[in-house]
């Protein structure tokens, strides 16, 4: 999700954006939802007010079991590297597995759904999870010789073995760094090098769109590349998609590669005590890459992070122990770490891990999974919602599932798309939370509290309890709620889920996230270190935050700054439009003009009339100033493997500049087709 997002702070220059959006109406969460919600007490906002900061977060820490209770809730002596729950000792694997055994050992912890429908769904109980985590931890400790503080790179697909591997690392305090399975061997190498990993854990193969893909191949590239840059990988541990059978064409490398299933034969029945670790030790690294600069490892803490994801899973995701919870994200992204693995398992929920593509083999697949597993909490991203709507707008009605709660995350959701999600996917019976946050933040920043607040399509909501957003303009003045102007959204206070630093690069951490609005670089007070998210946002009079996108994506036409999402939302008002992406094109007089790219729902043909309708919609919703230079109706958008539209590529095509490397795209072939259309070559 993160490739498109990074630009260093220093490049950011525009932070006051006029907003043209109309206000959307409130929609109340269904009464049936509120009646059972974990959090309905409005006083929570008082309890978590700035006056009660930081002590309010004791509530979250108390959701966990501690070996030793902490003595200092927040230590700011090394600001802005904040330490939470200092003095406490805790273990994440214990909290997500062992502590549930007494009452729930026979309950499903993980439902693993293979992509092929003819394969059996695997239901891993808490007891089985416990056994498998222990046996794998024995390999890490006794075969690999790994210990607390060592880093290990994981490059695994969406299989039950991935959370098992993560929890085994956590049991010993080994810092895992899971690289999104769809990333290349080179991307994996970059992360092996930066983290200094001596072990790589992978899987031979996995299914994607019906193909059994050779994944081991990427391990060979990763290890070779890492070696070239001086980082030796001693062993590659290879899980098998089909235990006992090798499913990749790439040969195993003698002396280096070893099958986990072979090693497990020696560790059957072994039990490894969870290691009590200081709360401020590192649980994992999550790399977030940018269009510029090398990927940075967001370093997440153990006690603070786990408390925060447990708290937000309980109150914002509304997870109860009896719920079946399905988050469609990939565990290779932060959403998967926080809200597939650590949050839900800390609360003893049943969490779904789905191997493949939501639309394989057809548009009904997701809803069949929901029906068959009786999923009642559903979590996905606007890009997936748009894709599902595009190819199967009437599919959800054909299936009998009951969602009480749904989440959208990852980018702003157009109100049109929100309404389809609410009415068609949720059948008007589910509460929706639009959760705005980042890899760096560990957990949610803004969202409605689903049992308390009404929903507003397109708006994330207020800061969640204990998060206090503030919007600054370019000069550091506060843009107050209701001002009708957007600016650079920051968070006034630290919170337990916030990353500790960028792995090995504290200077970059300070520079990128704090320098710009820091009140005093020598200060040890948290009040002087607002966290800069890099997003542009507008806050309505009711305190609801609406995210416009990355501050760098703002388009400046003749001095009018327009948020990309506003223009795209306007295009989506035209019923035939499935997806929209806007990019700036250089113009001698205006500075830039918007070029609008559109993909249609199936069954509709591109036409001059449609292009005109899109243009007219933008003029109507936003104004003539925003009229696109051209509306290009394309067969599909260039997308990253995580589904984000690559505006950079479209921008380069519109401007006739260098497109750069597109091999990491999910659909590189589309680039040429669009280029032909736009540049006539
Ligand atoms: C964007 C994903 C609007 C935002 C959890 C942020 C959103 C970036 C939302 C982080 C949302 C995420 N509404 N925009 N609900 N959620 N974003 O690190 O620009 O992959 O800064 O974390 O996605 O992406 P990341």
Quaternary arrangement of the chains shown? single chain
State the end-to-end distance. 31 Å
Task: Report the biggest beta sheet as strand number plus sense, adding barrel if it closes.
Answer: 8 strands, mixed
The poorly predicted ranges are 1-15
Continuous helix count: 20
Strand content: 15-25%
**Overall shape:** globular
How would you portray this structure in words?
The structure is a single chain. The longest helix has 18 residues. With 681 residues, the chain is an alpha/beta fold. Helix 6 packs across helix 7 and helix 17 packs across helix 18. The protein is globular, with a radius of gyration of 24 Å. The strands form eight sheets. The chain has an eight-stranded mixed sheet with strand order 13-12-9-7-8-15-16-24, with helices on both faces. The chain is built from 20 helices and 31 strands. The structure holds 5'-O-[(S)-ethoxy(hydroxy)phosphoryl]adenosine. The site of 5'-O-[(S)-ethoxy(hydroxy)phosphoryl]adenosine (WTA) has 23 residues, from helix 12, strand 21, strand 25 and strand 26.
Short description:
The chain is an alpha/beta fold.
SSE blueprint and pairings:
Blueprint: E1 17-18, H1 31-36, H2 44-47, H3 58-61, E2 72-75, E3 83-86, E4 89-90, H4 92-96, H5 101-104, E5 108-113, E6 122-125, H6 126-143, E7 151-155, H7 161-172, E8 175-178, H8 185-195, E9 199-203, E10 205-208, E11 211-214, H9 216-228, E12 235-239, E13 257-259, H10 260-264, E14 277-278, E15 282-288, E16 296-301, H11 303-315, E17 324-327, H12 334-346, E18 350-354, H13 365-373, E19 377-380, H14 382-391, E20 405-409, H15 415-425, E21 431-435, E22 469-472, E23 485-491, E24 501-502, H16 506-513, E25 531-539, E26 545-550, E27 555-557, E28 560-562, H17 564-571, E29 577-587, E30 591-600, H18 608-621, E31 630-633, H19 647-655, H20 669-679
Parallel strand pairs: 5-18, 7-8, 7-9, 8-15, 9-12, 12-13, 17-18, 17-19, 19-20, 20-21, 30-31
Antiparallel strand pairs: 1-23, 2-3, 4-14, 5-6, 10-11, 15-16, 16-24, 22-23, 23-25, 25-26, 27-28, 29-30
Helix pairs in contact: 6-7, 8-9, 11-12, 14-15, 17-18, 19-20
The structure holds 5'-O-[(S)-ethoxy(hydroxy)phosphoryl]adenosine.
């Amino acid at each position: 999700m993160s490739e498109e997002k990074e630009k260093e702070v220093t490049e950011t220059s525009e932070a006051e954006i006029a907003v043209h959006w109309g206000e959307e109406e409130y929609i109340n969460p269904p009464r049936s939802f509120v009646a059972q919600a974990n959090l309905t007490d409005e006083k929570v906002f008082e309890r978590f007010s700035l006056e009660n900061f930081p002590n309010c977060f004791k509530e979250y820490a108390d959701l966990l079991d501690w070996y030793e209770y902490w003595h200092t809730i927040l230590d700011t002596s090394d600001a802005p590297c904040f330490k939470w729950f200092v003095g406490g000792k805790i273990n994440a694997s214990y909290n997500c597995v062992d502590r549930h055994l007494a009452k729930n050992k026979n309950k499903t912890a993980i439902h693993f759904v293979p992509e092929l429908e003819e394969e059996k769904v695997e239901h891993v109980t808490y007891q089985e999870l416990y056994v498998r985590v222990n046996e794998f931890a024995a390999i890490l400790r006794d075969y690999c010789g790994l210990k607390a503080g060592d880093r290990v790179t994981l490059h695994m697909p969406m299989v039950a073995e991935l959370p098992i591997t993560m929890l085994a690392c956590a049991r010993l305090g080994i810092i895992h760094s899971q690289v999104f399975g769809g990333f290349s061997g080179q991307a994996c190498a970059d992360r092996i090098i930066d983290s200094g990993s001596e072990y790589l854990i992978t899987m031979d193969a996995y299914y994607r769109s019906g193909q059994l893909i050779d994944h081991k191949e990427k391990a060979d590239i990763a290890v070779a590349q890492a070696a070239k840059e001086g980082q030796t990988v001693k062993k590659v541990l290879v899980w098998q998609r089909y235990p006992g059978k090798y499913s990749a064409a790439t040969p195993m490398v003698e002396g280096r590669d070893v099958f986990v299933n072979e090693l497990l034969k020696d560790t059957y029945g072994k039990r490894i005590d969870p290691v009590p670790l200081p709360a401020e030790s590192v649980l994992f690294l999550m790399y977030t890459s940018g269009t510029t600069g090398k990927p940075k490892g967001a370093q997440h803490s153990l006690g603070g992070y786990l408390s925060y994801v447990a708290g937000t899973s309980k109150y914002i995701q509304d997870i109860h122990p009896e719920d079946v919870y399905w988050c469609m994200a990939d565990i290779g992204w932060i959403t998967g770490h926080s809200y597939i693995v650590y949050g839900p398992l800390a609360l003893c929920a049943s969490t779904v891990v789905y191997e493949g593509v939501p639309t394989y083999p057809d548009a009904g697949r997701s809803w069949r999974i929901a029906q068959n597993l009786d999923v009642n909490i559903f979590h996905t991203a606007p890009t997936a919602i748009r894709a599902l709507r595009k190819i199967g707008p009437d599919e959800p009605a054909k299936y009998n599932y009951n969602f009480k709660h749904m989440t959208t995350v990852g980018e702003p959701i157009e109100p049109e798309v929100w309404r389809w999600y609410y009415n068609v996917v949720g059948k008007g019976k589910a509460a929706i939370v639009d959760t705005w946050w980042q890899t760096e933040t560990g957990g949610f920043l803004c969202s409605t509290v689903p049992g308390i607040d009404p929903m507003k399509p397109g708006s994330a909501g207020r800061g969640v309890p204990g998060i206090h957003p503030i919007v600054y303009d370019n000069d550091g003045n506060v843009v107050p709620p209701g001002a009708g102007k957007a600016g650079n959204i920051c968070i006034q206070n630290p919170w337990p889920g916030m990353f500790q630093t960028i792995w090995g690069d504290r200077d970059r951490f300070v520079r990128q996230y704090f320098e710009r609005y820091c009140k005093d670089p020598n200060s040890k007070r948290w009040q002087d270190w607002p966290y800069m998210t890099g997003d542009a946002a507008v806050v309505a009079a009711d305190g609801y935050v609406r995210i416009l996108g990355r501050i760098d994506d703002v388009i400046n036409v003749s001095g009018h700054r327009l948020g990309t999402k506003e223009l795209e939302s306007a295009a989506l008002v035209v019923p035939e439009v499935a997806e929209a992406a806007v990019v700036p094109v250089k113009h001698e007089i205006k500075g830039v003009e918007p070029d609008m790219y559109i993909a249609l729902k199936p069954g509709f043909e591109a036409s001059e009339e449609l292009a005109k309708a899109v243009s007219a919609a933008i003029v109507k919703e936003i104004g003539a100033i925003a009229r696109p230079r051209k509306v290009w109706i394309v067969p599909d958008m260039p997308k990253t493997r995580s589904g984000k539209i690559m505006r950079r590529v479209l921008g380069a095509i519109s401007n006739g500049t260098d497109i750069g490397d597109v091999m990491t795209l999910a659909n590189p072939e589309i680039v040429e087709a669009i280029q032909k259309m736009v540049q006539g070559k």
